[in-house]
Design brief:
The protein is α+β, with helices and mostly antiparallel strands. It has one domain (2-131): Nucleoside Triphosphate Pyrophosphohydrolase (Alpha-Beta Complex). It contains 2 helices and 7 strands, in the order E-E-E-E-H-E-E-E-H. The strands form 2 sheets. A 4-stranded mixed beta sheet has the order 4-1-6-5, sandwiched between helices. Strands 3-2-7 form a 3-stranded antiparallel beta sheet, with no helix packed on it. Strand 5 and strand 6 (78-86) form a beta hairpin. The longest helix is centred in the middle third of the chain and has 13 residues, at 44-56. It is globular and about 40 Å long.
Amino acid sequence: MQGYNCIIIYDKTKTNLLFCKRTKDPYKGLYNLVGGKIESGEDGFVAAYRELEEETGITKQDIKLHHMMDFTYYNQDCYVEVYAGILDDDITLKEEAHPLVWLDITENFFALDRFAGEGNIGHMIEQVNCYGLGITSRTT
């Protein structure tokens, strides 16, 4: 089963969220959270920090990620681990494949014509807003 991660990144004021605008399918033209594939045998936190740095230039020194939740899609033979964090300071972003953009937290993240994930992005962000960031390691 292939693993993927989605990473919810708040700016230091927690008023904006980081998104990429997809330039290819799936979800071409829609905003999506940053993230990517988890390599076979790779720890989820290691994969999340690796993908975050590859796609944005944000490093482990810039942010502490929290494991929020997981989704398993048996019909697609994959799972998604969701992480969230708040930047410690302003940062200059380094785009990899898709343009990066900060969006205001008041956006309607459930809007299917703007956001990828069939409403899951809205659900994940609401979970952070209602219940907090999650755990910071597999042992806490």
